[in-house]
Amino acid sequence: MQGVFDTQTWHAGVATLIAAEDATSIATSLVTLIGNTVSSNGTSLLAFYHDAPPQVVAHSLAPSSAKHYLDRFLAGPYLLDPLYQLALQAKRPKMCRFRDTQPDRFLSSEYYRQYVERTHLVDEMDYMLGASPNGALVMVSGRTERRYSRVELRRFKLIEPIVIAAMERVRDARSAVSSVDDDGRGMHQRLTDCFNNFGEGELTIREREITQLLLRGHSSKSIARELGIAPGTVMVHKRNLFSKLGITSQYELFSSFIDKLSVT
Fold this sequence. Notes:
By secondary structure, the protein is α+β, with helices and mostly antiparallel strands. Helix content is 53%, strand content 13%. It has 2 domains: 4-175, 2-Layer Sandwich (Beta-Lactamase), CATH 3.30.450; 197-262, Winged helix-like DNA-binding domain superfamily/Winged helix DNA-binding domain (Arc Repressor Mutant, subunit A), CATH 1.10.10.10. It has a 5-stranded antiparallel sheet, sandwiched between helices. The longest helix has 16 residues, at 160-175. The radius of gyration is 20 Å and the shape is elongated.
């Protein structure tokens, strides 16, 4: 039985990737090659920044799917995304499975329910590369019908050197010509300020720290580990911040944050 790596299509994809010269052509060829290696519902190469909104470098999604998956993500929810947070850390893996990057209560978080669950995403494999001190490139390959099999995960691993090398070429090609416009930076700053200052004037600094971690899907135990305090202390802060904000659930907390975000 002929394997994926034995097909003419796969090797033709490698040849196209090698021949590509500019950032867009390299990125598009890489997205296609990954799609020829493992079947998915879409693969995207994104650029994440500390001081600007994410940019889409290339993707294989149909226009309607791009609007559903990418446009909604870029509108602001990316601030709560665990992959976005991980990619911008100084220490990041070159490859990971999205489910392994999630906070312990992510699947019950309102961000998951209001955004991720509505995308019907059931599995995702990601490659990450530091693009500069200010950002990172992230290749995302997602699936909505079923999880990746062991064989498919092994294929992802086998092509890791090719993917990372191609992402390095994209990074180098983009560094000389790409920039984020001032409007984009300004919008990102407003969104970030909204997140960082949510509850300002009503909550203490500690309560705002806990609010941010709750919005990102952390449990009380996880928050306690992140902040180096006792879980019981987290619960006290949580009751207090809910009372001050006039809410009774994390759904209301998320809704209140989104309301603030939508008027930013």
